[in-house]
Amino acid sequence: MSAHSLPESTNLWHGLEVDKALEMLDSDANSGLTSQEVEHRRQKYGLNELEENGGRSPWQILLDQFTNIMLLMLIAVAFISGFLDLLALTGGTLKPGEVPFKDTIAIMAIVILNGILGYVQESRAEKALAALKKLSSPSVRVLRDDKLGDVAAKELVPGDVMLLEAGVQIAADGRLIEQSNLQVRESALTGEAEAVNKQAILTLPEDAPLGDRLNSVFQGTEVLQGRAKVLVTHTGMRTELGKIAAMLQSVDSEPTPLQQRMTQLGNVLVTGSLVLVAIVVGGGLIHDLTQGIGWKNLQELVEVSLSMAVAVVPEGLPAVITVTLALGTQRMVKHHALIRKLPAVETLGSVTTICSDKTGTLTQNKMVVQSVYTNNSTFRVSGEGYTPIGDFQLNGEKANLDECPEISALLVPCAVCNDAVLQQQQGVWAILGDPTEGALVTLAGKAGIEQDQWSSKLPRVAEFPFSSERKRMSVICQLEAVATGESSITAIDPAIAGFVESEEKYLMFTKGSPELTLERCTKIHLGNHSIPISDEHRSQIVVANDQMASKGLRVLGFAYKPLTEVPPDGSEDTSEVDLVWLGLVGMLDAPRPEVRAAVQECRHAGIRPIMITGDHQLTAQAIAIDLGIAQEGDRVLTGKELQLLSDQELEQQVDLVSIYARVSPEHKLRIVQALQRRGRFVAMTGDGVNDAPALKQADIGIAMGITGTDVSKEASDMILLDDNFATIVAATKEGRVVYTNIRRFIKYILGSNIGEVLTIAAAPLLGLGGVPLSPLQILWMNLVTDGLPALALAVEPPEPDVMERPPFSPRESIFARGLGSYMIRIGIVFAIITIILMEWAYKHSHAVGYQGDPDTWKTMVFTSLCLAQMGHAIAIRSNNRLTIEMNPFSNPFVLGSVIVTTILQLMLIYVPPLRAFFGTHELSFSELMICIGFSALMFVWIEGEKIFFRFMGKKTV
Predict the structure, then answer these.
(1) Mean pLDDT of 643-650
(2) Are strands 608-612 and 353-356 parallel, antiparallel or unpaired?
(3) Smaller CB count within 10 Å for the chain: N or C?
(4) pLDDT tens by residue, 349-385
């Protein structure tokens, strides 16, 4: 078969016999491909490497920051203001001491700073694909031209024969030709931590899930032990790793709810500003033309327009939002959640669905024995993690182990037929070795059977290692005679005295698959002796095994056999016969104790938790029911069933299913997409390479900090430093607080902005000479007078019911729930108060005999607007509670910001250099008191609103 006709199917090779696969790829297991054929195939398939699609360049990202409609309007204002200053400079009409172009410079500085701020947030390039590439092996050993040699991994082609050994990172997908005791760690690809035992002789169904393809190996996984010869079936982007890379690059990043709301806000503000500018300029021109003045006041109208345009744009808002999100990030780190992308802080508050992996997130990633069955009795075992403290309970009561000799007899092999080590480090119990074996050592320790002591009493002299064919392991231990010369029977511990009936000097302990171990037994251990095993005994054991398995427990069977001599190596089949049955041990990766409360909190907050796991469906169901994620009788959707569903059918199912088991990478991505099409806002957890596309697709991608791969972390928005589901819930609460505070200071900032715009627009309509506020003064108000209190409002403590309500819709308008009407209402009140003051101040400063500058009225307007915002900041801390009902020191930053901002405002009036730069005039004490009096009316109005709404029985936003 030539290279151009090679099969393309990616679901074919594990379903073929080895010889058939070699034939289809026109390869030879003993000599490999020829160099000529390798070159032909490389031309067809390309290099064995992951391909990267081009993204935005840093310059493109920077330029994109200046396409924001509000920044574009400010740029236009800066250029027009600069042009007017240039005309004044060349025409000699500048006022004495006035600095030309100061408005232009100030506005452009704000524009550039906002652009840089956006660039820094957005330019963190996605490094997920780069991390994925690190999983590729640099070189590989292959057979070519009947010779063995090393080649660069990127040179591999389908049909190559590669050799694997322990420690090797697999360079391509392949079908096993032959193998010897091969174990591969596939956790990065499948998400499951346990090593996989591979078997070349198997032929599997075409629909076998990725984790069950025991006759295949995959790029990016690691050989733990054994060796193998592999036929390369897929390279580059056709590998499972390549498919993940393609999915990763196909996922488009959607704007976050906050980004969408800010875009909407900008569009509304700019459109409203332009309409208002058109009305003011048009009205002014019509008035001038009808009065016969002509175009005389055009420049004045343009200056009014510029001031209005600057007033409507909340220049300080991007900085305040960024600082707010950064503060939220710091608070989340204290809860063990690390935010990688700032907008994710607020986005968390909109989450409606949390899709969580099981292992290590909902569970402890520690196997804990739950049940022990022996002598037709099932004991429940208590305890947490690997701590060797717990009780054995029979029928709900604590069992006395002295009255249950079968328990001690069963627990001895748990301790000695074991390669794990239990140790205490800094007060925490941990295991070295396999988690399953660690659970058995812990179980024995709960009964006082210490591994160290029993390893001395029963030193191991030989073993039959675990193999995937036998699904069991055995150890041979020696029974030592004591120095008194007594027989070994009297010298051994009473716990195993019944194991030996004559002068046997060795004991073989076996553990493994209950079914395969039981079929090798001819006796059963009851009390202190063994008797022939009956069919009734066997059926009782099978029923007990099925009951444990139905609860999602991983079940192991135990047996022993007395020996007179050590069996020779390789005699497993002949030695592991005529065993004596001891009992069953059922274990589970136990749920984290704090997760139950976190799931309950999710329910109260209107958030739906979903479990998505690669584990068996019974195990997944048992954990989900225990935690409250699902109820008895709820449907479990498996990966195999999901594969048969169309996207439309899956979309109909996602609202009904809370447990997904035995799923693959594509399934996770499809589940997230289906939920999103249903309007759900999804947070997805993951740790493996296979999770990266789903993490990127999710509205919030959450990677594991302890077990997570670099690929999953780079694709995520947030990293759980403790891999704990409860941390997600705590972060979601913080996200809600951040969003509430963002809405609070948007109300605060934009209410005053509307007041500024209306005040500026009223000046020419009332026939007052000049613009009451210059662009520089407006920038001061928007950045300092508004900015500092807004930052203080950003750290307002959470309201008590923040997690007792459903999440607000992520697609709600920024003006939703009364925010828009509040801004307009407060803006109008602002304007009315200020316009009344402005009218009085204009007449006051133009009265006959007035000693000050006629433009003093402008400074009074400027000061009143700024001081009114201080009252606004104090009143807006709560939507419903009066200021006197609140503790002023629960957020001391608000009080501090009001004091600091007031002092800064007074410095602009009474410090000569600042007064000259900002174009203000010194106010007399009486004028200042009048400004303060008018400003206080704003505070009084807002507090009055609260009383009114309380009387009407309504809550404000």
Answers:
(1) 92
(2) parallel
(3) N
(4) 889 999 998 877 888 878 899 999 998 789 999 988 8
Nearest alpha carbon to residue 737 among 796, 783, 792, 688: 796
CA dist., res. 567 & res. 570, Å (int): 9
Tell how far CA 120 is from the center of its chain: 21
Between residues 314 and 586, which one has the greater pLDDT?
A: 586
> At what angle are helices 69-91 and 298-312 packed, to 10 degrees?
150
Name the H helices within 291-338.
298-312, 317-334
Please state at what angle helix 257-290 crosses helix 725-765, rounded to 10 degrees: 0
CA distances to 218, 272, 612, 667, 710 from 210, in Å: 10, 56, 15, 11, 21
Q: How far is Cα 337 from Cα 246, in angstroms, rounded to an integer? A: 29
522, 466, 109, 151: which is closest to 319 by C-alpha?
109
Alpha-carbon distance 489 to 495, whole Å? 12
Most confident of the ranges 248-262, 278-292, 329-343, 589-603: 589-603
Q: What is the mean pLDDT of residues 503-517?
A: 90
Residue 174, pLDDT above cutoff 90: yes
Q: What is the dihedral of CA 935, 937, 938, 943, to 10 degrees?
A: 140
As annotated, the active-site residues are 357
Q: What is the DSSP letter of 633?
A: T
- Angle (deg, nearest 10), helices 69-91 and 257-290: 40
134: CB partners within 8 A, 6+ apart: 710
pLDDT at res. 897: 94
The CA-atom distances, in angstroms, between 764 and each of 117, 166, 287, 842 are 37, 84, 10, 12
Find the helix or strand (DSSP H, E) in which 927 lies: helix 925-952
822-826: which pairs have CB atoms within 8 A and are 24 or more residues apart? 822/747, 822/751, 822/956, 822/957, 823/747, 823/750, 823/751, 823/754, 824/754, 826/747, 826/751, 826/752, 826/754, 826/755, 826/872, 826/942
Q: Which residues of 480-507 are buried (b: 16+ CB within 10 A; e: fewer)?
A: eeeeeeeebbebbeebbebbbeeebbbb
Q: Are 579 and 604 in contact (CB under 8 A)?
A: no
The rounded mean pLDDT for the chain is 85
Residues 202-230: what's their mean pLDDT?
Answer: 88
- Distance set, CA 102 to CA 73, 688, 777, 784, 865 (Å): 18, 55, 11, 17, 22
Rounded CA-CA distance 579/557 in Å is 12
Helix (H, G, I), strand (E, B) or coil at 682: strand
Tell me the sheet residues that pair with 149. Answer: 142
Handedness of CA 174, 175, 181, 186 (dihedral sign): positive
pLDDT over threshold 50, residue 482: no
Write the CA distances from 697 to 204, 237, 346, 681, 690, integer angstroms.
32, 20, 18, 11, 13
Please report the pLDDT score of residue 608 as a whole number.
Answer: 95
Q: Within 10 A of 643 (CB to CB), how many other CB atoms are there?
A: 14
pTM, 2 dp: 0.73
CA distance 735 to 350: 8
pLDDT value, residue 487:
36
Q: Which of 127-141, 717-731, 862-876 shows the lowest per-residue confidence on average (mean pLDDT)?
A: 127-141
421 versus 210: the higher-pLDDT residue is: 421
- Is 426 strand, coil or helix? coil
Cα–Cα distance measured from residue 916 to residue 55, given in angstroms and rounded to the nearest whole number: 49
pLDDT in tens, 534-575: 999 999 999 999 899 888 888 999 999 999 899 998 898 899
Contacts of 906 (CB under 8 A, 6+ apart): none
Q: What are phi and psi of 744, to 5 degrees?
A: -65, -45
Q: How far apart are CA 9 and CA 106, in angstroms?
A: 63
Candidates 829, 822, 856; CA nearest to 934 is: 829
Query: What is the C-alpha R_g of the chain?
Result: 38
Question: Residue 723: left (phi > 0), alpha (psi -120 to 50), or beta?
Answer: left
What is the DSSP code (8-state) at residue 533? P
